[in-house]
Amino acid sequence: AQPSLLTASASAADTRFTRAPLATGPQSRLCTEVLPGTHRQELPRERYDERLFLRTDLPENEALLRSAVHVDLEPGDVLLFHARLFHAASRNHTRDTKYSVVASYRRLDNLPVPGTRSAQLD
Question: In terms of Cα–Cα distance, which of 57, 65, 60 is closest to 44?
Answer without folding.
Answer: 60
